[in-house]
Amino acid sequence: MTDRPLSNRTARLARAATVCGAGTKLCPAERATALLEAIIEPGDRVAIEGDNQKQADFLAAALAKLDPARVHDLHMVQSVIALPEHLAVFERGVANRLDFAFAGPQSRKLAELVAAKALRIGAIHTYLELYARMLVDLTPRVALVVADKADRDGNLYTGPNTEDTPTIAEAAAFRGGIVVAQVNEIVDRLPRVDIPCDWVDFVVPSPKPYLIDPLFTRDPAKIRNENVLMAMMAISAVYEPYQVQRLNHGIGYATAAIELILPTFAAQRGLKGKVARHFVLNPHPTLIPAIEAGFVDNVYCFGSELGMERYVSSRADVFPVGADGNLRSNRALAQVAGQYACDLFIGGTLQIDAAGNSSTATKDRITGFGGAPNMGADARGRRHDTPAWLRAGQEAGESLRGRKLVVQMVQTSQPNGAPSFVERLDAFDLAASAGFALPPVMVHGDDVSHVITERGVANLLRCRSPEEREAALRAVAGDTDFGRRQSPEATDNLRHRGIVMLPSDLGIDEKTATRDWLAAKSIDELVTASGGLYAPPAKFRRTTVAAA
Amino acid sequence: MTDRPLSNRTARLARAATVCGAGTKLCPAERATALLEAIIEPGDRVAIEGDNQKQADFLAAALAKLDPARVHDLHMVQSVIALPEHLAVFERGVANRLDFAFAGPQSRKLAELVAAKALRIGAIHTYLELYARMLVDLTPRVALVVADKADRDGNLYTGPNTEDTPTIAEAAAFRGGIVVAQVNEIVDRLPRVDIPCDWVDFVVPSPKPYLIDPLFTRDPAKIRNENVLMAMMAISAVYEPYQVQRLNHGIGYATAAIELILPTFAAQRGLKGKVARHFVLNPHPTLIPAIEAGFVDNVYCFGSELGMERYVSSRADVFPVGADGNLRSNRALAQVAGQYACDLFIGGTLQIDAAGNSSTATKDRITGFGGAPNMGADARGRRHDTPAWLRAGQEAGESLRGRKLVVQMVQTSQPNGAPSFVERLDAFDLAASAGFALPPVMVHGDDVSHVITERGVANLLRCRSPEEREAALRAVAGDTDFGRRQSPEATDNLRHRGIVMLPSDLGIDEKTATRDWLAAKSIDELVTASGGLYAPPAKFRRTTVAAA
Q1: Distance, CA of A420 to CA of A350 (rounded, Å)
Q2: Interchain CB distance below 8 Å, A245 and B137
Q3: Which CATH topology does A220-508 take?
């Protein structure tokens, strides 16, 4: 689709003036749908800010109310499909094309709509490549974004959850696009400016604050001994020998366990100041004890996390806090930081196949990737070296470059009993049924350096053939069909060669791998560790309330 | 080095107030060195904006004047080493550590200073990874940036050459750092805000406008027939068969030739609307005829190019132009766009070895990389597909991913007669003498998809072994020692298998490969093509003046 000339912007703005009044950027909430009808034309590419955390929910609802007889065939470009309204635009015939990065709770419904041909998916992206395409070949004609506050000139303040807003606004504003922001309030003077008013055409005060989810909070009470064991192995087999100082953690109880045993297990091994100094990570509450123990020098953030605002503000020496005293996060820059300034990505998955490919896709759900493929890939454009990167490269047999450490942590069986190790990923079936050119593999096997289960660690860097890699994976797959296909002798051989490490090979007595290592064992203890500054969202306070 | 707490920022600002006066961000030019002495402490990490194009030259000079008895051991973090003042800080003992991305005219002097132990290089980076590290482990305590204009609140307007400024300012401002901007003028009202005043602590009006170089301008008069031949092969062997729509061009006469034969040679092959629609590129003047011919849909820009301002403003449908009517470029986002939203990078090099590794490093010069390694690498985190990416992946034998097209264009001999193909890169010697852990390879052989010389095209994707790759390279290395080691029979064999293509194999009659294909043959003709809007810098107008 060829972009229409800029002059068309003038016509759209003239129509909008009949809705909002001339000479103002403020649009009353009740006229939001009328505004969108004035500025959006059939066939437009529209970016709506559906972030990992915060949502432009009011504008999403306004968009879903458009009359499909007047506005139709829209091409939606958005990071996350999170709300029913995000799919309603397709069900109602307002939009019919979608390019996105992640669909969490809506993944099943999305798959149904694709099967029913209510929409066509262009591609599933990582966050960073979706932003990249917004600048190049998926340039938005209209961008609907969300911020905390605006002033009357249209300057925006995002508060700690800056996330995608500056990038989406920049992509649209400098392509003759029209930028509309929903805000919680209009104020005379902003705490700081996150997006300058020249980039914003309209501001809509929303009747209620935008929706935001505490997606990155894990209750320490739910961390099990197996998670602690895997965390201990991660530190012993990866953080310590590779001297990993700069890293990114995925979400999950296993990585939360790592965060919580830094000040105990890792400190006891003398690793304070030697590993895990620089994080690229949202402000996980489970990071508080490590920060308070002086383990962590700094944390660069994709977004924020509900309840962490006051604590983060109090640790401006650790988090990216502005002169106004609040966090500014930036998902695009954090993805860049994760790719180019981290030596380790460690995260979980649902399925791993014999080649080490992993995926969270299942046949009936189109979940997407988010940021994991970007983090969980070797950045071949990287040129600076660190001990971690050089050692990983040497182990992999590289002579001219290092390697990123990409660690997948997974229990051999999922909570529902399904095996995590499979001969064939469900992603292959999904690709066939959804008509994708390639299966949606989250992390490719040839990018994975280590797989950690409750049984042990497989170092895939040291494997010199696909067969060896497969044997290493079977060795840590435990009591699954996949694991039982391997003889104990073959596993012993891999142990002798340092490719497979069982807990005992790492000097870990499994009986000692318990929750006792956790520096905080509950949300309450995290609050205490924060000096009372962490304010857990209601859903995480339930246990406390029950106990009171 | 552990970052000091934020409270120290307050002390620094208090000292600065004694220089500039309380309650103002404006610092008179004559007090610039005093201001820097007030805010910088020994051992600080300091980012100075030395961009690919514009330079914070006044602040660089002020920094070089600091008294090393008071300010010393600085750790400089900067994209480009471009000015004598950038090295003077090391010669004078003000700074002793350097992390950077590119050193053009200063590369020889830099190598001398390293040999004399006047400074220690941390690493040579790509632009994008240097920004990434500024957010993570090379966070600047003080950032010295440059913009066109500021208002009295400290809001900055960069004009078209936005380049690195927002990224450097963000990295420093949200780490308790201090941001100082030199500007050409202070105005009451800015055309637009590029960096909000909350991110800027001090503004220094410079006595003269900042230095900026037209680095991306190539005079069509200097393009030779050989460049045209290579451009024709690039279009016939790569753009056309892979349907390359999204791409990035390096700088050089060969890529300038491609730009100038799009509206002639490529159009004659029926490729308008089918290839080269979306560029990630500075506004190269040699792109004007293709834009005017409707060949190019849009161009996203790292920076701008001197003289192109009015033309770019007139083509807001093509370039990222704001509501103020001027380009906003963004080097960080453009690097992301080049990595994740381009299917092709094509650029030149100085040396290629038998493995296909290429480098611009020579023993006596530490030049660095700039952005080339980032562009010239396969982005393994990419997940969306295009015909170009899928075809490249299939040819390379990939089953689960595509491949980026990375094309190196090089004449078999350099203008000084030195062979471009060598058994061993000078980069290996440089690594040894400078003490680098790895040789500074610009583009790794295993990331290169095609090498094009005036003799032919080698498709490395189709090579299945290092030996085959080497043979393909020797086949296009022409009359060099490197090329003569190959028998004509071996080359014929590679031609039959479609690995090597000579001009005749591509249907190109070498006699017709002449400058006649160029849509503009001189700077004057580019001006004409732009409708008189392109205003060439003085150094490119010389020929015209001589003829007048």
Answers
A1: 6
A2: yes
A3: Glutaconate Coenzyme A-transferase (3.40.1080)
Strands A95-103 and A74-81: parallel
At B105-163, the pLDDT tens digits run 899 999 999 999 999 999 999 999 999 999 999 999 999 999 999 999 999 999 999 99
C-beta atoms of B322 and A198 within 8 A: yes
User: Domain map of chain A by residue range?
Assistant: 26-205, 220-508
- The answer to whether A382 contacts B173, with C-beta atoms less than 8 Å apart, is no
Closest Cα in chain B, distance from residue A366 (Å): 14
A132 touches chain B (CB under 8 A): yes
Cα separation, B530 vs B312, in Å, equals 10
B488-524 pLDDT, tens digit per residue, is 999 999 999 999 999 999 999 999 999 999 999 999 9
Chain B, residues 320-349, CB within 8 A of chain A, namely 320-324, 328, 330, 332-334, 336-337, 339-342
Out of 3.40.1080.10, 2.40.50.320, 2.70.98.10, 3.40.50.10580, select the CATH number for domain A26-205. 3.40.1080.10
How many angstroms separate the most distant Cα atoms in chain A? 80
Question: Cα separation of A225 and A418, whole Å?
Answer: 20
Q: Are B65 and B31 within 8 A, CB to CB?
A: no
Fold (topology level) of B25-205: Glutaconate Coenzyme A-transferase (3.40.1080)
Reported as a single tens digit per residue, the pLDDT across A142-164 is 999 999 999 999 999 999 999 99
Residue A454 φ/ψ, nearest 5 degrees: -70, -10
What residues 430-449 of chain B have any CB closer than 8 A to a CB of chain A? 437-441, 444, 447
CB pairs under 8 A between A and B: 252
Fold of B344-501: Glutaconate Coenzyme A-transferase (3.40.1080)
Rounded Cα gap, residues B22 and B110, in angstroms: 40
ipTM of the complex: 0.96
Task: Give the pLDDT score at B543.
Answer: 54
Return left, alpha or beta for A544; rule: phi > 0 is left, psi -120 to 50 is alpha, else beta. alpha
Pairing status of strand B450-452 against strand B457-459: antiparallel
